[in-house]
Write a structure and sequence with these properties.
Shape of chain A: globular
Mean pLDDT of chain A: 86
Number of domains of chain B: 2
Order of helices and strands of chain A: HHHHHHHHHHHHH
Structural class of chain A: mainly alpha
Number of domains of chain A: 1
Oligomer: heterodimer
Number of helices of chain B: 11
Order of helices and strands of chain B: EEEHEEHEHHHEHEHEEHEHEEHEH
Low-confidence stretches of chain A: 262-271
Radius of gyration of chain B: 24 Å
Low-confidence stretches of chain B: none
Largest sheet of chain B: 6 strands, mixed
CATH topology of the largest domain in chain B: Rossmann fold
Number of strands of chain B: 14
Distance between the termini of chain A: 33 Å
């Protein structure tokens, strides 16, 4: 226990003082200030949406959730992709492990420190966003909305912690930091861009667009025909199901459910608000999936780490 | 008889098909500097890692300071320090911060930690560099920092894996002197692995020679040379004049087995000490002895002979 606390304290100090963390923090913070401003403007023009819309809806289509979807993997992975293999390569790991600590204190301490650093980042950012929004709007969230914001913050931490655990796994499984960095970047690109392209491609291949014979040549008629609309709907369904493999998608879907407090119906008017309990129920599968993924990554890196041979590389 | 502080019983470690350490039986006594000698890849590092409980043996076991290396490895790491080969330090931290972290991992209270760090930085000669980042350190300084890191827990036993590798002669000498001083003044038991014969000869009381994971021999250097030479003595003579007849006369002395000539020098191999008879013979022949001394065998000779024997 003492060993874990010592490792955690050192790692946390390292994170908070590291250039990567400061740069990412500054980036997210400055972006979120902008977002808070435009979110508040958005709420002002659509007062019926409520305070929460500051986080999800946005004039320019870019919300805090969207920022987290895009940068979340990078933030989480960048804190941990080299945490074990760098120490292995530089020879500090063998020095640390020669001390009277349990071997798992090292990986536990590292994970804990990373999670604390990420919590600090997300709570600070969300807190400042709330402050800015309240300042501009002149009113704050209701009690229920406050609870929703807390859940949103917790879920964001969980989401970042998942990426952090994945980075930890990469750093344990690879010997070179360059390898784990490459894998991390690939992972990020895959889940934030490539998976959407693949999903679209598969949907396109599985569901050919039906074009009614009588409407041949007439674009407007084609688009408005039931067959065409149906095939587009099926495509969207397939695309969504494939994208659900991505933690980023799960996160953004759940965030929309928890934040909007109104079922999103595209251009249709929201029928009625989801209650807090209903929202929680709706996001539950997503939360469980991300927790399961996090546990998988952490346990895998834990086992790999305990079995690691710490002989110096020749 | 001094007390046994490290004892291994048929200690074996296999990596796949390769046997890194093969049924090693070894004893190290309290208060000595034990040299663990062998070429690269002989199994020295593996043995050290097993003794510190950082790698689990395939079979066999060992006791370090009375603790079992498998069941009580954490206790061992409390009383024994290891300076691993290629040990690294956090480059962005100062010497003091690095030692402080190691102290924290050893659960040493803050005030005690601060006191020990100051003392140790003095001992290893890094006091002026205490608050300089380690990235500015030379190899020798890093190695001295490493020794301070080993000593911060006040160990009974210190393991050093190739402590002078990659150091310049000055750095090597500093490390060596430091180890000898720690042994003499603090009574620290030192287990030193090295592939450098000279180093072991200069530093260690006893030597264990390992090859292909097997312990070839373990003894004091004097005993080793006696064993290798089988009690024979070689005397070196430098004379003003050497002639074949003189050599014949010396060979005729009872107990002399062989005489080798190198210019004006003679190497006389004897079963028993016949130095007196030999010098008399030389004087009688009219030659003058300029120099006369027993030839000392270096560890290198012993090493090579042992290796040739397999």
């Amino acid at each position: 226990m003492a060993g874990m606390i010592a490792v955690c304290r050192k790692e946390l100090a390292d994170h908070l003082g590291s250039k990567r963390y400061i740069v990412l923090f500054a980036l997210i913070l400055s972006l979120s200030m902008l977002l808070a401003y435009q979110g508040a403007e958005y709420v002002r023009h659509n007062p019926r949406l409520g305070f929460m819309a500051a986080f999800s809806g946005a004039q320019f289509g870019f919300s805090f959730t969207a920022i987290m979807v895009l940068f979340g993997p990078i933030i989480g992975l960048s804190l941990s992709f080299d945490s074990i293999n760098r120490e292995r390569a530089s020879g500090t790991l063998s020095v640390i492990l020669s001390q009277p600590i349990h071997r798992d204190s090292v990986i536990n301490g590292k994970f804990l420190a990373g999670t604390i650093a990420l919590s600090l980042l997300s709570t600070t950012t969300i807190g400042i966003m709330c402050g800015v929004t309240i300042f501009i709007l002149g009113f704050g969230p209701t009690a229920e909305e406050s609870i929703r914001i807390v859940i949103y913050a917790l879920f964001t931490i969980l989401y970042l912690a998942f990426w952090h655990a994945l980075g930890l796994l990469y750093s344990t499984a690879t010997k070179k930091t360059s390898t784990s960095m490459l894998i991390s970047v690939t992972t990020w690109l895959f889940f934030s861009i490539i998976i959407a392209i693949i999903a679209a491609l598969i949907a396109f291949l599985l569901v050919p667009a039906r074009i009614p014979v009588r409407a041949e040549g007439n674009i407007t008629q084609i688009i408005q025909s039931e067959e065409f609309k149906e095939s587009m709907r099926r495509r969207a369904q397939i695309q969504m199901n494939i994208q659900k493999l991505s933690p980023a998608y799960l996160y953004s879907e759940a965030c929309n459910l928890i934040l909007t407090s109104k079922p999103s119906g595209g251009f249709e008017r929201p029928v009625r608000s989801l209650t807090l309990a209903e929202s929680l129920l709706a996001i539950w599968p997503n939360v469980t999936a991300i927790i399961a993924a996090l546990i998988f990554c952490f346990v895998a890196s834990y086992i790999l780490f305990l079995r690691l041979e710490i002989r110096p590389e020749r | 008889m001094p007390e046994t502080i490290i004892e291994t019983f048929e200690l074996t470690k296999k990596y796949g098909y390769i046997t890194a350490v093969n049924r090693l039986n070894l004893k190290v006594y309290e208060g000595e500097i034990f040299g663990f000698l062998g070429p690269n890849g002989a199994g020295k590092t593996t043995t050290l890692l097993m003794l510190m409980g950082l790698t689990v043996p395939t079979s066999g076991t060992a006791k370090v300071g009375g603790y079992d290396i498998i069941k009580e490895s954490r206790e061992i790491r409390r009383i024994a320090g290891l300076l691993p080969e290629g040990a690294g330090y956090y480059e962005d931290l100062t010497a003091r911060q690095n030692l402080d972290y190691i102290g924290q991992l050893n659960d040493i209270p803050r005030l005690e930690r601060r006191k020990r760090i100051d003392e140790l930085l003095e001992v290893v000669g890094l006091k002026r560099w205490a608050d300089v980042k380690v990235e500015k350190f030379s190899r020798g300084m890093k190695q001295r920092l490493g020794i301070a890191g080993v000593l911060i827990k006040k160990p009974k036993i210190a393991f050093f894996d190739e402590p002078t590798i990659g150091l310049d002669p000055q750095g090597t000498k500093e490390i060596r002197d430091l180890l000898i001083r720690l042994n003499r003044e603090e009574g620290l038991t030192i287990f030193l692995s090295s592939h450098l014969l000279y180093e072991v000869q200069q530093t260690c009381h006893r030597v264990g020679i390992i090859r292909d994971g097997r312990l070839v021999v373990a003894d004091t250097i004097e005993n080793l040379s006696r064993r290798v030479l089988g009690g024979r003595i070689v005397m070196e003579f430098e004379l003003t004049d050497v002639n074949p007849e003189l050599i014949k006369n010396i060979e005729a002395i009872d107990g002399v087995s062989l005489v080798k000539q190198e210019d004006h020098r003679l190497y006389v191999h004897m079963e028993k000490n016949k130095a007196r008879e030999v010098s008399e013979t030389i004087t009688k022949s009219g030659s003058i002895i300029l120099l006369m001394r027993p030839k000392e065998y270096s560890l290198e000779d012993i090493f090579l002979r042992l290796y040739r024997r397999g």
